[in-house]
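hiii so um. not sure if this is the right channel but i have a protein structure encoded as tokens and i wanna go backwards to a sequence. like what aa goes where. can anyone help
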């Protein structure tokens, strides 16, 4: 569906209006002018142009109403595999989440990005459990039911993997998928991740535990992706 190189927008090229949006969200950056080429630089400025129809951008407070509406519309669909839906009941809950992840991004501990398809939020992808000393991190994601089957998540994950190895100097990226969640498992398999094993009863979802399958990709196994 898409073609061409995945393009990242470094912090130095952000416009003043974008920085004003960030200050309105949660105060001024603690590390202004950092270069994303430096390992574990601030990730508040992350954005990625994948195609004319598909982009990624770190979540901002102004995204809260749209993001909450998407979650609420897809609540029944998402609750099979996501454990946090009971804590997201209002727009204010979503604002609290965005504030949390923006603090994490400011501290170079990972970030959550909105997946924009045709200028509307279609889902979220994040990089978390960042461990600079061990040069490793994990990726998580979810996508609205109506946007499945368009290649959006595969391309979003490609972008995050490239960013992790190119800009965060990672050596290992992992993806954990619930056993039985075939759509989620298809992503790391498609991107050449290696299955490492299963974590038993790794997550509690409403009434039961689910196992997690562990997939990983190492820097020496990676080559930069192109969008499909």
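sure thing!! here u go:
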């Amino acid at each position: 569906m898409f073609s061409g190189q995945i393009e990242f927008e470094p912090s130095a090229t952000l416009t003043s209006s974008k920085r004003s949006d960030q200050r309105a969200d949660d105060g001024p950056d603690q590390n202004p002018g950092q270069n994303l080429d430096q390992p574990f630089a601030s990730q508040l400025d992350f954005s990625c142009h994948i195609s004319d129809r598909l982009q990624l951008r770190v979540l901002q407070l102004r995204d809260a109403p749209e993001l909450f509406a998407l979650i609420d519309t897809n609540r029944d669909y998402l609750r099979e595999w996501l454990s946090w839906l009971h804590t997201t009941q209002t727009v204010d809950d979503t604002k609290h989440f965005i504030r949390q992840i923006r603090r994490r991004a400011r501290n170079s501990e990972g970030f959550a990005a909105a997946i924009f398809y045709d200028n509307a939020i279609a889902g979220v992808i994040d990089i978390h459990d960042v461990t600079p000393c061990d040069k490793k991190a994990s990726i998580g994601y979810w996508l609205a039911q109506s946007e499945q089957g368009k290649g959006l998540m595969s391309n979003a994950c490609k972008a995050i993997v490239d960013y992790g190895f190119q800009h965060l100097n990672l050596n290992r990226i992992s993806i954990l998928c619930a056993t039985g969640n075939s759509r989620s498992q298809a992503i790391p398999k498609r991107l050449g991740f290696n299955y490492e094993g299963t974590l038993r009863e790794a997550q509690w979802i409403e009434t039961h535990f689910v196992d997690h399958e562990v997939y990983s990709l190492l820097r020496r196994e990676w080559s930069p992706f192109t969008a499909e």
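oh and The longest strand covers residues 120-131.
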